[in-house]
């Protein structure tokens, strides 16, 4: 039944949340939400040399930023070592696993011999049927699966279809190392069973593990979960997404000013589709999601498409919510903490909120929005860029002097009366509107380009606007 469906996201804490991992987490989350089930989080931290708490925190932070919550407490794979050993003991007892006393050097020699004879390089089963009495002294054994030697193992994959692997191609792989630590292959199976996982959704690069893990499930007498191996994400050039293509971690996209709702929408469409829908509300994604619409081909990451989608979400997001996202971005951006400190003042926060409608219409990312908004917190007298300097010549200063008097007389500091006053002044002086608006923009923002001029006047308010106009008009 739907309520019994359980998925899991199981990252290794050796770095940040990779964008491919974020997409895997999203698919698991959507599949579980669609079915009214649960998504669990398991931290696969058995590699103690490479696993760090910093990475665990970064993964959870990335998931939280994307709005992907998990059910229950995160589970540490390393903490379940005793349970993994218990499972191996059960396999030794039922004859589906055995102790292997071959040294690493002997196993290497077996592989070299097989290679020389044109066979796949693998362990040759030397200890498969030997009696324990033949065990050499002073050698700690590994535990190997006694894999079936004939027949085939079938994985009915929800994305890749029916995958058949001849059992002769699956050697007696190691379940537990000689130091008593489990291999990834064993730990994953035991954990998935104990967590009651019904559907394993992961990257297609794990498809080769699926047959081996199926053998372990069967050796322990457990049901094999349904499996879905989703396509990888490639860069624009068709190669597997890597650092040379640009950012690969979720935290980097936050720092580049992307909104979590845009990232969710974009990642959902990488390998999955619903008709021609490009822009999807989260509720629709949950309603529509299914593995039947996940393709087998690798998905290509298109940075321009993501930027355009983010621009849509910038414009569509309510101002108060966008302000919250903006603050999250600033907390992780270079120089952002200074802007956050400015916004901590309630009056300044209200100014930023007032400015947002004009700002978000012209920005595709929160980086662009912050740059456009910088006029709000830069101190007087404003520094001016090269374009503004060229605009603010003697003629422009004379116009600003006139505009100061005109705007000072405007009653009701709102878009309509301000626009009426500026246009009336331009007509009176027989000037094109641009000849008036450009100096006004440069005086108010210190830049040659900015949000709409009336949006800027309203955001700054009467006193600050008039003071900035006066600064430039009086400048020698």
UniProtKB/TrEMBL annotation:
Reply yes or no: does the keyword Protein biosynthesis apply.
Answer: yes
Q: Which residues form the Glutamyl/glutaminyl-tRNA synthetase class Ib catalytic domain?
A: 5-307
| UniProt-listed Enzyme Commission number(s) | 6.1.1.17
Gene3D superfamilies given for it? 1.10.10.350, HUPs
Signal peptide location: none
Q: Which residues form a coiled coil?
A: none
- Give the protein name, as stated in the record: Glutamate--tRNA ligase
Q: Which organism is it from?
A: Roseibium denhamense
Q: Name the encoding gene, please.
A: gltX
């Amino acid at each position: 039944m739907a309520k019994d469906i359980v998925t899991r996201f199981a990252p290794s804490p050796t770095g940040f949340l990779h964008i491919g991992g974020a997409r895997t987490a999203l698919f698991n989350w959507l599949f579980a939400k669609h079915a009214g089930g649960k998504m669990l989080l398991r931290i696969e931290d058995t590699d103690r040399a490479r696993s760090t708490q910093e990475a665990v925190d970064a993964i959870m932070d990335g998931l939280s930023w994307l709005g992907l919550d998990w059910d229950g407490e995160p589970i540490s794979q390393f903490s379940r070592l005793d349970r993994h050993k218990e499972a191996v003991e059960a396999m030794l007892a039922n004859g589906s696993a055995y102790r292997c006393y071959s040294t690493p050097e002997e196993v290497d020699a077996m592989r070299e011999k097989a290679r020389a004879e044109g066979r796949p390089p693998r362990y040759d089963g030397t200890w498969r049927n030997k009696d324990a009495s033949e065990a050499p002294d002073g050698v700690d054994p590994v535990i190997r699966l006694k894999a079936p030697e004939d027949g085939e193992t079938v994985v009915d994959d929800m994305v890749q279809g029916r995958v058949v692997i001849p059992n002769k191609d699956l050697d007696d792989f190691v379940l537990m190392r000689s130091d008593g630590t489990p291999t990834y292959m064993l730990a994953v199976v035991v954990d998935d069973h104990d967590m009651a996982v019904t559907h394993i959704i992961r990257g297609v690069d794990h498809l080769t593990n699926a047959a081996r893990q199926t053998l372990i499930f069967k050796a322990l007498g457990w049901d094999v979960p349904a499996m879905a191996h989703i396509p990888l994400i490639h860069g624009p050039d068709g190669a597997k997404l890597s650092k040379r293509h640009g950012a690969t971690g979720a935290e980097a996209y936050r720092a580049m000013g992307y909104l979590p709702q845009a990232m969710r929408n974009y990642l959902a469409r990488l390998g999955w589709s619903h008709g021609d829908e490009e822009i999807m509300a989260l509720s629709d994604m949950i309603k529509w999601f299914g593995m039947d619409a996940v393709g087998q081909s690798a998905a290509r990451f298109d940075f321009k498409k993501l930027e355009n989608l983010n621009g849509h979400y910038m414009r569509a997001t309510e101002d108060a919510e966008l302000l919250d996202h903006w603050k999250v971005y600033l907390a992780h951006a270079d120089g952002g903490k200074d802007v956050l400190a400015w916004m901590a003042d309630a009056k300044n926060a209200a100014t930023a909120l007032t400015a947002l409608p004009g700002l978000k219409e012209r920005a595709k990312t929160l980086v662009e929005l912050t740059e456009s908004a910088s006029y709000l917190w830069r101190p007087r007298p404003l520094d001016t860029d090269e374009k503004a300097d060229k605009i603010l010549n003697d003629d422009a200063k004379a116009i600003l002097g006139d505009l100061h008097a005109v705007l000072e007389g405007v009653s009701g500091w709102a878009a309509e009366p301000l626009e009426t006053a500026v246009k009336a002044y331009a007509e009176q002086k027989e000037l094109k509107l641009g000849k008036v608006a450009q100096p006004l923009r440069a005086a108010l923002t210190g830049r040659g380009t900015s949000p709409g001029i009336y949006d800027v006047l309203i955001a700054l308010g009467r006193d600050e606007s008039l003071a900035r106009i006066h600064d430039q008009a009086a400048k020698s």
